[in-house]
Amino acid sequence: MNLKPYYNQLEKNLGAQGWMTIGTWAQSPFQVIWSAILIQNASANNADAAAADLFTQTKNDPALIRGLSVDELAEIIKPAGLYQTKAKYIKAAADWLKQYNDDVKLIEQMSREELQSELIGVKGIGNETGDDILMYAFHKPVFIVDTYAKRQFEWMEIDMPKDYRKFQVIAEDDWQLNWDEAQELHALIDTFGKQVKNQKQWDESMMAGFTLK
Fold it and tell me: How many helices (H) and strands (E) does the chain have?
């Protein structure tokens, strides 16, 4: 499925989103990992507040996070909600990083498939969270099948599987996007998805009549 026209149409009308620019949540690999966990079932504002507190207390250093108890970490990330659970998830991710001596370059050497499999084996990291980390922390191009993407494919009247990985495989078949475009497409889909919430709004937007072949 060639997603380049989809990318071009959104980018032409919305402009570059720049999620990987200085000052964003995706600025460092460790920040991406913690933020991807903190945003689960939380508003962006609350997750950002928790991420800021975590940075202030730990500088996002996995070793410092491993040195905290679950209760200590939970207190720091309280604004994100479900803080006891998320503290356990963040510590599990920090423990996983320890296997690689917190060496991002070493982790990036893994194939996408191997890294994808390892990430979803970490407690609290499912398909979508894992793929967020895969792309924004470790620079592997991937199509993230989130709620916004599912809705937009439905509005384009494209029948896709319910299963996350099966949807992803079809979307990525000949998708013709490099990493820069893949991460930008995800940002564009989510930005537009926050503006357009139903079929009627889609049909009245610049995407009216647009579909993928």
Answer: 13, 0
The three-state secondary structure class of 212 is coil
Place of tokens 């999620």: 19
Q: Mean pLDDT of residues grouped by 10 in the chain (213 residues)?
A: 95 90 78 96 94 96 98 98 98 98 96 96 97 95 97 96 97 95 96 96 95 83
Within 8 A by CB and 6+ apart from 93, the residues are 33, 34, 37, 62, 122, 124, 125
CA atoms within 13 A on the CB side of 167: 20
Contacts of 120 (CB under 8 A, 6+ apart): 126, 127, 130
Nearest to 77 by CA among 124, 109, 118: 124
Q: What are 36's two structure tokens? A: 């991807």
Integer angstrom CA distances of residue 158 from 75, 116, 173, 206: 44, 26, 15, 18
DSSP code for 67: T
What pTM was estimated for this model as a whole? 0.93
Q: Which residue is it, tokens 């494209």?
A: 158
Residue 59 corresponds to which tokens in the numbers above?
Answer: 């500088």
Sign of CA dihedral 62, 67, 68, 70: positive
Q: DSSP for 148-209? A: HHHHHHHHTT----SSHHHHHHHHHTT----HHHHHHHHHHHHHHHHH--SHHHHHTSTTTT
Write out the DSSP string of 31-49: HHHHHHHHTTTS-HHHHHH
